[in-house]
Request: fold
Amino acid sequence: MKKIILTGVALSAALSFLAAQTKKPVAGSSVARGKKVYEQYCLTCHQVDGSGVPHLNPPLIKTTFVLGEKPALVQVILKGMQSSVPIDDEYYSNNMPPHNFLKDQEIADVLTYVRNNFGNKAGAVTAAEVKAIRAKN
Amino acid sequence: MKTRIALLGCLSVMTLLSVQSRANNGDSSVIRPMVADPANAGLKLPTGFKAQAIAENLGAARHIAVTPLGDVYVKIQTSKPGKAIAVIHGNEVKTFGTYRGTGMVIKGNYLYTSSDEEVYRYALNDKFEVINPDQPEKLVTGLINRHQHEAKALTLDNEGNIYVNIGAYSNSCQVQDRAKGSKGIEGCPIRDSAAGIWQFRADKQNQTYGDGTRYASGLRNVVGLDWNTADNQLFVMQHGRDGLFDMFPEYYNLQQGNELPAECMYALKKGDDAGWPYIYYDGEQHKKILAPEYGGDGKKKGGENAIDPAIAFPAHMAPNGLLFYTGNQFPAKYKNGAFVAFHGSWNRQKGQKGYFVAFVPFKDGKPTGKWEIFADDFAGVENIQSPGQAKHRPCGLAQGPDGSLYVTDDVKGTVYKITYGGK
Reply:
């Protein structure tokens, strides 16, 4: 079973790499790396299609946070988010834990992926920007 | 029964000509005419059963109660003014009340409801209509609500007691909720005011924690609960914990994260402890396993003093409704058995599960056989990947005076009525 899963993971990684190569999206390699970070740390709650879970976990599709100013968005990754904070006038019941253990490059990659996926179109986030925002905390 | 079927047949021809009557409560709620629906409102049912949608677009329809005269009360999860409770009477929907919440039960001449912090009751007249919609009695107040697991689902026994779920505002009582590497708090303090079922009096106003009793503890979150009148005992469905694979990949692979822990039904006695957050129930090993936040590794057993479930279901399916069927309309095997509405999972990976109403046959207060899917296809999509794709999600259950089963959907606010017409 482990072998099958490993082969599957390797295959899908290879495929997503190829897809990223052929599509040549904005910051292509960052998006491809960001997809892997997303699948490991974000997908369970925010879902494979970024639609979240109604009333529990917020969607990542064209929300003010996702498309908005980069510092606020980077802080959500670094510090997490409490369920008492509304997102576009909706409350979501589950707390998001801090993901400050992710490296600057990983945060830049996953945010670039999210901001250019699920129907979103927003500027890439760089590791230097994450580093600067983290330094202010 | 045969006459009714024939009648329904005639009526269904008439519907072709009729137009859906619209509720006059100023929004898009729709009442369906009471006629047979050959498509069973999109549901897949056992042979001989029929379903129809008696109302649509009510909003996030949570728990439901049906009066002895067939009126239907639905708790709507909204804070919109005047929209907290929908009443379906014939071809008409009216709404009243302003508070979010889930609980909805009729017992005797009272309608009991809950917000996410309080429990109310409304006196009913001899037609089981709410006498004063604007002034319910506030029975319980000040229950903890920190957004997570906030629904104060409730039920009553036959001795004037009310049982209220107070869910844990946490996944597994970690120092930092849901954070990888964060340890479980020893002597979990959440259990003092939540993670259990509290018992209050059904006829006393303004009760709070000090007036009630922690009837059962160690229950992470309960939305579906019902009093089993056959053996005079409280039964609950627990929402099991999340994140075994996500937070502990060293002990659990993705497949194990998908299948653990079991969603459990518990038969409760006063003082019982189901073990949260220290243990979870593994439905494959049939054991109580020490939670990894408290030193577990997926194999170490724990919870010597915690009770075992009455029956265990697959993981993460989110049981939101529980009903013991006491009617005479359905075939004999359903009598005193349990229906469970599984809202549907979100934290499985590569395919979600649930989105159906299950049935468990019972005798003398114990399950007698395996559970089975009773009503399926609420989601309306094949191979559902995320809950946002579901067109409907079953939530509340109630039994009508004629023995029909009512099911709510909290995506669009459909109310289904399921009837048995024979083979």
Observations:
- Chain B has one domain: 2-420.
- The domain at 2-420 of chain B is CATH 2.120.10.30 (Neuraminidase).
- Chain B touches chain A at residues 60, 77, 146-150, 176-182, 242-243, 246, 253-255, 346-347, 349, 385-389, 411 (CB under 8 Å).
